[in-house]
Amino acid sequence: MLSQEAQKQIDREVAKYPADQKQSAVMSALRIAQVEKGWLAPETIAAVADYLGMAPIAVYEVASFYNMYDLSPVGRFKLTVCTNLPCALSGGVHAADYLKHKLGIGFNETTPDGKFTLKEGECMGACGDAPAMLVNNHRLCGWMTPDQIDKLLAELE
Amino acid sequence: MLQLEIDGKQIEVPEGSTVMDAARQIGTFIPHFCYHKKLSIAASCRMCLVQVEKAPKPMPACATPVTNGMKVMTRSEVAVKAQKDVMEFLLINHPLDCPICDQGGECQLQDLSVGYGGMASRYQEEKRVVVNKNLGPLVSTDMTRCIHCTRCVRFTAEIGGFQEMGQAFRNEHAEIMPFIESTVDTELSGNIIDLCPVGALTSKPFRFSARAWEMSRRKSVSPHDGLGSNLVVQTKLDRVKRVLPLENEDVNECWLSDKDRFSYEGLTAEDRITRPMIKEGGQWREVDWHTALEFAAKAVKGAAAEHGAASLGALASPHSTLEELYLLQKLVRGLGCDNVDFRLRQSDFSADGKRMGVPWLGMKIAQIPKLDRVLVVGSFLRKDHPLLALRLRQAARKGTQVSVIHPTRDALFMPLAARAVVAPDQMVGTLAQVAQALAGIKGVALDASVPAVTVGDEAKKMAESLASGANGAVFLGNLAQQHACASTLHFLAEEISRVGGLTLGFLGEAANSVGGYLAGALPAVDGLNAARMLAEPRKAYVVLGAEPELDCADGAQALAAMEAAQAVIVLSPFKGRATEYASVILPVAPFTETSGTFVNTEGRVQSFNAVVRPLDETRPGWKVLRVLGNLLGHSGFDYDSSEAVRHDLLGESAEVSSKLSNGLSRIAVTLKPAAAGLQRVADVPIHFADSLVRRAESLQKTKDARPPMAAMNAATLAGLGLSAGDKVKVKQGAGVAVLSAALDDTIAAGCVRVSAAHPTTCGLGAGEITVERV
Ligand code: SF4
Ligand code: FES
Ligand code: FES
Fold first, then answer.
1. Which pTM was predicted?
2. Which of A79, B102, B347, B410 sits a CA distance of 20 to 30 A from B708?
3. Structural domain contains residue A59
4. Which of A37, A65, A93 is the last residue of a domain?
């Protein structure tokens, strides 16, 4: 289910913990699996569970708790807009509204061409740069005023 | 010890106690939901908030450790205010429609809201709605009612051993659920119904069929495995509505297996027979009791007169009551016949006459958790003994080293010190290896009859584990007891116990596995045992509570013997296939409709009363046997109660411990080379094991009740040129069964697992087995 490469990466994470506590690597394992598969399908979660010797529901608890894990397929670019309080006070909601308007989709929706998915996010620890946004979980963007958003969208091809 | 004061009362508690523990010790009730004495502490519901002197805010009693000199107030203004506030929060999202909730009347939230809830809700906004989950045929859900106490989650993870439930999502969106598309499937899942403090998890078979306050609660004892779980049977209008655990720390604690809990559905099975029937001129007809009993007596007497008393045979289910078993053997012996047996699934009887007492657990059930080393030989532990497995699991998780010798690598959900997955015929050799290794370590000589063997790694590990403990035990499971070399296994296990200073125990297969021996329901002098009674067919049989084709070791042979007999007297609550071979069927009461006794595997004599009146014309078995005894002209059959029967057998004190012993005089051990052909691993699936559970509708829909397949590991499958899913013809003895082949890598090489006790496989005989594509 998981590729050799993914398994190798997971093994590296597992090695950081005592031998009888493999499950400590569950968050990393889910991240690795998601990067490989694009999202966390039930069978992917079950595969991670199997690999770490955990009950599938125990892995699902983790996968469903953190909103950077995707439990359904997402577009090529997943844009996560922070709507927590500091961002909300500094234009976060507007940024989200602007994106919704531009892309013609709401939160948790994907554009028909499968290019963009819009998500609501929790504090990214970048409140000083509000409004903050994440692209595909790994790229953090600050000061996302409408013209910055336009620039970002133009650049995502 | 720590001193503290709760509501002005001084108490002393051991170090490490929580405020909740202390309060329970003096009988002070602190409201709670998530706390449960058998589960870990979650402290998630906050209902147990109490005031603690010098603490800045109320503290959760279940999670607050006692400190010396602590002063706790559980009913102070601060405490009660906190409790009321928590209750208001809990009720925000909880539906306030108790009249349509199945838990109504026995709901902890309902009860506590009477004490701590407001008269009206201040919350006017929309309530949360949660989609129900399909947890399978036993547990029904109403997830909107869930208060997220996580008791169900902790039960599956900590007690069941495999986390089947979890709390997914977060915050307002948190939901208690199984994994996507999964159900709860362990043999203990029904316990989450009892644990759920609200109506989120309720019994599916019982759903909406009665209210808690309309039912009477009667005590009883489970008729299934050797544990004898204590039951509360709830009845309404002379019908059993539901079965719940009766707490008994020494036996079932507060748990029940699903079999104990849901088998009552079988009581009203379609083929329940409620009037005596006789077959005359090939036609079945209902008759009154008198006619039926006369008919039965005449048939037995006739056969005895014509062919001699030894032409009779009596087979009893080990799930029969002690009184029934006692009267049955007395009845047969009164005719001068010694052919009686209750050990229907056993195939090796060579220990008869060499046993020093009644085989039993060898200790009290409650002592199992105190063992530090355990070797389990030949047991489908979880399925055969769900609650003993639970005890062993708790022990293993606390450090007890458990080793297993068995032909399948079943998931036991406990850490194992060593495990040998070997074909049935290699179990003897493996056990001999353990014996030899252990004797070597201990420097004690083995009995001369044990041949020298080469000790393998796994056996060595087992011996080392056993040798390093202070309080160890060897247990022989159902498979070991039904094994073709059962007495050799017994003898070797005894040798291991002797050289290792361990306790030897038998895991009792059925409710009266000990009781049958005490009752003398087995040949005493020259009689035939269960296997020989079928191999050397008798002219007439008396069958008590058993379905020979499903309950005997060789089902095909049993059926043939029944069909060939000139008379078969069946005493059973169910018709089954008896109409095909019986001459008279006497409807006797199942355990709920008769008084009786089960002696469990630890030798605990547990008597019980009927919880409902016998259905229609049904009569308690002991009464039927009493009348039969009288009709046959036997003396000593005028008991006026089942207690009188028990007294006659066990005496006033019902003291049996002096009769229990697992000792065995020497048996010559011969080691067989590995068989060339395929070997059958015949498990008796949990929900097919006796006539009552076989008919329990909801249990029959569980995964444990899936029809048998011919399961093999990859190599064995490939060796036969088969792949999973192929239709195969399985031949054993004179029987044939068409099954589908399945891949199962938990099975020892060279073996095929074909479950017994099922209509599709009961035609198979014994001995060599072949599997080929159809
Ligand atoms: S379903 Fe019942 S037992 Fe499970 S968390 Fe909810 S309220 Fe507690
Ligand atoms: S609130 Fe948006 S990054 Fe912290
Ligand atoms: S019982 Fe203490 S927090 Fe739930």
1. 0.95
2. B347
3. yes
4. A65
Q: At what angle are helices A26-37 and A56-65 packed, to 10 degrees?
A: 80
Closest CA to B688 of B75, B53, B263: B263
**Residue A14 carries which DSSP code?**
H
Give the separation between CA B585 and CA B543, rounded to whole angstroms.
10
Give the containing element (helix H, strand E) for B769.
strand B769-773
Nearest CA in chain A to B162: A55
CA-based angle B627:B629:B634, to the nearest 5?
A: 135
Q: Which residues of chain A lie closer than 8 angstroms to B165, CB-CB?
A: 57
Are A144 and A124 within one domain?
yes
Nearest to B163 among A45, A57, A65 (CB): A57
The predicted model gives B710-714 an average pLDDT of: 97
Strands (E), chain A: 77-82, 109-110, 116-121, 133-135, 139-141
Return the residue of B nearest to A44 by Cα.
Answer: B180
Give domain status of residue A70, yes or no.
no
Residue in the block written with tokens 């970002």: A152
Query: Using one digit for the tens of pLDDT, what is the confidence trace for B9-43?
Result: 999 999 999 999 999 999 999 999 999 999 999 99
Beta bridge partners of A117: A78, A110
B151 lines ligand 1 (CB under 6 A): yes
Q: What residue ranges line ligand 3, CB within 6 angstroms? A: B 32-35, 43-48, 60, 62
Atom of ligand 1 nearest to the CA of B167: 5
Shortest alpha-carbon distance between residue B132 and chain A (Å): 16
Distance A117 CA to ligand 2 centre (A): 20
| Residue A25, domain member (yes or no) | yes
pLDDT at B674 over 80: no
pLDDT of residue B271 exceeding 90 = yes
Of A65, A85, A115, at which residue does a domain stop? Answer: A65
Answer yes or no: do B168 and A57 touch at CB < 8 A. yes
Total of domains in chain A: 2
* CATH number, domain containing residue A143: 3.40.30.10
Is B166 in contact with A58 (Cβ distance < 8 A)?
yes
- Residues A60 and A95 placed together within one structural domain of the fold: no
Residue B48 Cα: closest atom of ligand 3? 2
Containing B166, the helix (H) or strand (E) segment is strand B165-168
Select from A67, A81, A90, A127 the residue to mutate for testing ligand 2; criterion: most ligand atoms less than 8 Å from CB: A127
- Residue B670 is predicted with a pLDDT of 82
Residues A100 and A137 in one domain: yes
Confidence of residue B668 (pLDDT cuts 50, 70, 90): confident
Whether A147 and A93 share a structural domain:
yes
| Confidence (pLDDT) at B474 | 98
- Considering the domain architecture, whether residues A82 and A147 belong to the same structural domain is answered as yes
pLDDT of residue B161: 95
Helix ranges, B468-582 (H): 478-482, 486-500, 513-519, 530-535, 548-551, 555-564, 578-581
d(CA B271, CA B574): 6
Q: Are A83 and A60 in a shared domain?
A: no
Q: Which tokens in the block code for residue B451?
A: 């041949």
Would residue A72 count as lying in a domain? no
Domain that holds residue A33: 4-65
Distance CA(B684)–CA(B687), nearest Å, equals 8
On whether both A101 and A149 belong to a single domain, the answer is yes
What is the C-alpha separation between B309 and B320, in angstroms, rounded? 24
- Taking contacts as CB-CB distances below 8 angstroms, the residues of chain A near B176 are none
**Is there a single domain that holds both residue A84 and residue A48?**
no
Three-class SS state of B21:
helix
- For residues B452-474, average pLDDT: 97
Nearest CB to A60 within list B157, B162, B166: B166
**Neighbouring C-beta atoms of residue B602, cutoff 10 Å:** 24
Contact partners, residue A99, CB within 8 Å, separation at least 6: A79, A81, A118, A149
